[in-house]
Amino acid sequence: MERELRLVIIDSDYGYIKQMEEALIRRFRSRAQIQIITDPAYLDVYFRTPRTIDILVADQSFYAEHLEEHTIHHILLLVPEVDIEKTFPDKVKAMMKYLPYEEILQAIDDFMTPEEEEEKEETASVEKPETKVVAVYSPIGGCGKSLTAMALGKKLKKLDQTVLLVGCDSLQSYSAYLRTEQCADEKLAEKLKNPGEDTYWTILQNIGQEEISCLLPFEKTMPALGIGTEEMKTLIAMLREKRDFAYVILDLGSELNGQTLALMEESDAYVLIMEANRVSNRKMWRLQKNIELLPKKECFMISNQYHMDGLRVPRQNLFGVIARYEDGEKAMEDPVFYRMALELCKEI
User: Where would I find the AAA domain in this sequence (predicted)?
Assistant: First the structure.
């Protein structure tokens, strides 16, 4: 198999990157593996390992001699102003940073030489790996389902997996963890109810790019827009067909109804969350009495200790435990999520 083209974008100004991120991903996602780095600390770690990069787009402040230690075919250097007296190696092209982003995208396109295009076409002819769907569920409200979905997605991304998070409960609760307040266009709801040739394009237009990609939440509840089981199954089927994401994570609601069970059945694996307290224990007991309803899939059961009341949870059936943390951001760094991501990459 030919190596996939690798496009790396480096700039600590996230606001600048955000302007062109969506257009960049839509334009090049089928032609190259894209990595965007905005954290200088992570950048330092990233370049400690020898890298092979086809096209590097970097703010001038990150251009340094250490890049010569890596195999980089083309560099697009974004500069605040062009200094005609300053020269760069042949593989480096300097370009005004604050030009319209379409010109920068075109410059990236121009770097794709005939040889690279041929390599890209050969790569494209190889069937993409199947998209894997992971559902996150618990009968317990407020137990950390959305936190788990978000944290798992982040860890999968650190393992170089492309991830899409989809909120499936009525209020799409995962949106509480998003920085943006942007909402999905209601046209997407109509496209899912009446799918056609442009439905997948509409899906892509409503994907937000944060730490991980997410299907933007609707302003109205999903039942109010007429989005139910069949519409969500249509969404999943299209994501599986196109295979643009290695993992799709479904953040399910707490009610064990027909839609929840149908989406769990659509998944390749699911995460079941419980809490170490008596109320949670009773709800889990009732779930176990109806265990035959749950799909026979790979299941990762974890216990969240945040609302612990002293109840001891038997560890023999648990994949792991989320320790007690002061806030959600720290909880997302619990080692259990990294272990689960590694296991998912290996097991499914």
Answer: 131-297
Positive or negative: CA dihedral 328, 333, 335, 341: positive
pLDDT tens for each residue of 276-314: 788 877 888 888 888 888 888 999 999 887 766 665 656
* Domain ranges in the chain with CATH number 3.40.50.2300: 6-125
| Structure confidence at residue 216 (pLDDT) | 92
| N-terminal to C-terminal alpha carbon distance within the chain | 22
State the span(s) of the chain assigned CATH 3.40.50.300: 132-347
Residue 52 · residue 71 · CB < 8 Å? yes
pLDDT in tens, 103-150: 888 888 888 765 455 555 555 445 678 999 999 999 888 888 999 999
In this structure, of 3-7, 262-266, 338-342, the range with the lowest mean pLDDT score is 3-7
- DSSP label at 246? S
Architecture of the domain delimited by 132-347: 3-Layer(aba) Sandwich (3.40)
Query: CA distances (Å), 333 to each of 5, 68, 153, 321, in order?
Result: 31, 33, 12, 12
pTM as predicted? 0.64
Q: Tell whether domain 6-125 is in CATH 3.40.190.10.
A: no
Burial label for 223, CB within 10 Å (0-12, 13-18, 19+), is exposed
**H helix runs in 12-144, sequence order:** 14-28, 40-46, 101-111, 114-125
Answer whether residue 22 shows pLDDT above 80: no
Cα torsion 206, 210, 213, 216: sign = negative
Residues with Cβ within 8 Å of 150's Cβ and at least 6 positions away in sequence, in order, are: 165, 174, 177, 212, 332
Nearest to 103 by CA among 199, 204, 27, 187: 27
Euclidean distance between CA atoms 335 and 311, whole angstroms: 22
